[in-house]
Amino acid sequence: MNGNNKVHDQKHTNGTPTVVFSSGDEDNGEVSKEQNGASAIPQNQSHLSPPEMKKKGSFASLTHKLGFGHGSASQLSKSSSKANNLSASYHEHMWDIHETIMHNKDSNIDKENPERSKGLSSQKARELLEQNGPNKLPAPKEISDLKLFIKQFMNMLWILLGVAAALTLVSFLADTSDMTGLWVTIILYVMIVVMCFISFYQEREARKVVRGFQNLLPTSCSVIRDGNETVIGAEDLVVGDVVKLKSGTKVPADIRVLHCTQLKLETSSITGESEPVEYQYEPVAENVNIFDARNVAFNGSYCVDGDGIGVVIKTATDTIIGQIANMTTDQPNKKSRLEHQIKIFVKFLTVLAITVGLSVFVIGGIVHKWDNIVLLLATSFAVCSVSMIPEGMPATVTSILTLVARRLARKNVYLKRLDIVEALGSANIIASDKTGTLTKNEMTVTDVWYSNEYVTDISEHRTGHHRTMTVKTISRVEAPLSDLLVAMTICNTASFDESIDSKKGNNNKEGKVRINMPTLDENGELSKETVQNTVNRYNTVGRGVQDTYGRGVQNTIQRRRKRIEQIQGKQAVGAPSEVALIKYAEQLINVHDFRKRYNVVFEIPFNSRRKFHLIIAKMHEIGNGQYQYLLIMKGAPEILIQKCSTILTTDEETELTENKRNEFQKAYNTYGEHGRRVIGFVHKHFNAPASIKFNVDEGNFPLKDLVFVGICAIMDPPRDETERAIRECQEAGIKVFMVTGDHHITATAIAKQIGLIGKEGHDWDVVKGEDIPKLTDQQWDKLIAKRSLVFARTTPEQKLRIVEECQKRKQIIAMTGDGVNDAPALKKSDIGVGMGSGSDVAKQAADIVLTDDNFSSMVGSVREGRLMFDNIKKLMVYVLCHTFPELWAIIIHFCFGMPIGTTSLIILSIDLGTEILPGIAMCKEPLEGDVMKRPPRKEGKILIGKALLAYVYGYNAHIQVVGCFLAYCTVFWSHNINISDLWMSALGSWKHGGALFTSNGRTFSVEEQLYINRQACSAWQVGIVFGQVFNVFCARTLRQSIFTQGLFSNMAMNIAIIAEIIMLLVFVYAPGVNSFLGGAPVPWQSWAVVAVVGMFVFSYNEVRKYCIRRWPNNKIVRAFKF
């Protein structure tokens, strides 16, 4: 547009605007924010019908339903939050110019013209800087990398294994002829170091929260000191400095604006406002929140338009962003539930290993008559520790978590901490932001109204209120729609980014529709020819047969949809609501070419006081030096209609009668009550001299007796998949709370559309942010017990309060957020979920980042979390079942004097070799069908409960012990040795330098004894590993039959089992390998007996699972359920 003169507010020196357009009834902050003339709801609340005044969402009805009177509703509950009330520490927004000067005497502020202020003296600024410190956020308190690395070795599991390795080294030093002890020591220490390096790297990457705040702050600013404007480092700024704010710069501190001209600040990262906010300098009432005052510019905000001057009132950690940083970094580091439960299990293993080791040492000492007590002590404790602790479990769990993280990454979910997905799987509350998460974050024109016609959007977006109205879709351009398109296009500062579009090429590829440039008539409106061509394009029926007609209609629909998709994908620059208008108009006309026909010569930008945007376009000459001009206004409909005397209909301009006003009011209320942002359009043709210079003060253009054209409704539509995702959460027993900064009517309307709340019922409520501090503990109890909640107009501390109240009631809460203001709540919540398009601070404070900002992605993460919990439990069932068979191989030697059943290297070959791949493949197990149909796990339910311990260390484990012992016996039977002869025989035989051994009349030399013993160790190894092959099929399901799940449905598991058997064959039969491990080839009978026992274990588990499915509530059956 060619704007020759753009009018700003002209201010008197006393601060009073020359022209102020009254807005009628004031909303007192109760309506949603307005941008570019957009009014979310009617400001006059009397417009709402009586039923709407009693909506379930109102706080009055909330307290009534909860059974509390006004007295209790006004009581302040004691918050457990350490956060200060951000707004309560500010009073400057209520000061007028005189009070501001009184509190900043050293700033030498000129009350008549603040731009002539002299500012602080350099000497005073230096004194204040020395007294209060620099204007910067303190560096995060972090331990050094060396201390962090050393900290990793304090894990109880590594300490226990380290002690085991040391004892193994002692046993090697006692008998250096056997190198086994040395190899075990080396392997254990290498494994400990590697695992500590991994955990060190992960924790080091997670410590970056405060660094994101530093990136928001400017490095320099323009100040006035000693009467001169100068540029200084932002760190040198002090309270009382007079600062100039200019377009394209960041606000360097919290600044009370003294004077401004069209100042607009982008504050989305701090306040959550989605559009640039227009600022002013007048004081506000005492009940107005600092975030709604619009006269205090916050540190880190970005100046997008206009300029201003102000005085610094807060610096460093006293600013809003500094307080938010403190609220975030003061939160203690979270420990995941998985990490906590594994710690509990490790403590259990530690106690168990020490107890068993001590018992074996005492009994072994008695049996072996305390011969070589040092070697006995070292060996008993070391071997028991190695056998009791599944060394491969940490690596396997980490591998599973890594694979799950990669799987989620492909679904646009990035895990900053691998173990956090388990916590998400146990979440019973998801508190989600609205904009961009539940909705598309794309302002879209959903409906237009003109001449009492309710018209749906061309792009066929769903609108929930159309069931009660007679509506039509746009199929042709006719008046007054043509006038409405002109107003949307010309009275609009947004534009398409042609540089981006040109890079894509201008060729008309297949499937795209060319829209011819519409022809204007002599009045500058769409000509009848254009209208008729549009009608013909969409409505003409061909002369051919019926099937040709059908194909033509279908092709037209497809072309229209492709055209709409093409337009929606175009890049545009401007306020979101204005972008929505030009994208709507572009569906019928070429906006870029259309604007060339209108020569805009005068413009009054929109602001929050006048609530309209005005342009005047010079049309064509009519003779005698006169030209016809077109005035277009766009803004708050309730303001614009007061300036009109006529309304445009399909036929002509008609008088704006009371009946017509009621029709408009009905449409306005209907859209507003359904959460739409409503924009009105008026125009006026008038004649004036060609050389006229339009001026607000002179009033030389019409501002009354205008023509009302129509209104349009704009909203950020819900994502297509949101409703299904919320329904899935509710089926899974997860409560979904919407926490948004939007107005409660807008939030309620979206909540209804996405199925979060219903039209009827008492299992939901809407709470305004201003009422959150007034809620008592009893009210919080009843609120959090509800299925769904909508929190509207929330501030950072209120979001934090919501998280704390949920956690006080033992709820596991996942909180989403994208702004700096969300960081404290993200850090405090059990699972902080940041958005990929959000601020760096939010992403760094979060545990999970949704790269597509989509709520359904988080629901998918819940599913993965629950699946992962089940699969880790299955992993525990699989891995832990072999620890007792390993232990019994030691017990029979130390306590019963029989030849030893295994070696330390064989144990490590199992724990770090054959067990790893099947354990990792367990993460590939699919859902058992009911994972998202069952409620979240109860608080306190642990990963490894009593029933699971009874299974892995009790009946199932000891069945496997029987299999291992029988395989062990087959070796001696193959050599015609009676098992009874083995009792206490190891006291003198079956070792280097031992005595001869005789059984069934045959005497065995020491070399023969050692070989047979190595065979027995390998047989026990076959018993464990081959037995685990059967056990893994048992562990793959917790309740379903493996045949229902699919015996070979997990391809990764099939490959892992084959690899496990191949490794076992190598360990047992490969020369050199078996001797290194301390084994030897075994007879086929060993395999056969293990297979029989394995089939028994498999059959028993199928019966157990059947009983769990058949009698789930039976007390005896529940004892076998884990």
TrEMBL record:
Main subcellular location of this protein, as a coarse class: membrane
InterPro entries per record: ATPase_P-typ_cation-transptr_C, ATPase_P-typ_cation-transptr_N, ATPase_P-typ_cyto_dom_N, ATPase_P-typ_P_site, ATPase_P-typ_TM_dom_sf, ATPase_P-typ_transduc_dom_A_sf, ATPase_P-type_domA, Cation_transp_ATPase_P-type
SUPFAM superfamilies with a match to the protein in the record: Calcium ATPase, transduction domain A (SSF81653), Calcium ATPase, transmembrane domain M (SSF81665), HAD-like (SSF56784), Metal cation-transporting ATPase, ATP-binding domain N (SSF81660)
Subcellular location per the Swiss-Prot or TrEMBL entry: Membrane
Residue ranges, compositional bias (Polar residues): 34-48
Domain of life: Eukaryota
Keyword Translocase annotated: yes
Transmembrane segments: 156-174, 180-201, 344-367, 875-900, 948-973, 1018-1035, 1047-1070, 1082-1100
Topology term for the membrane: Multi-pass membrane protein
Matching PROSITE patterns: ATPASE_E1_E2
KW Metal-binding (keyword) present: no
One cellular component (GO) term of this entry: plasma membrane
Regions of compositional bias (Basic and acidic residues) in chain numbering: 1-12
GO MF annotation list: ATP binding; ATP hydrolysis activity; P-type sodium:potassium-exchanging transporter activity
Region spans: Disordered: 1-57
Protein name: E1-E2 ATPase domain-containing protein
Species for this entry: Ditylenchus destructor
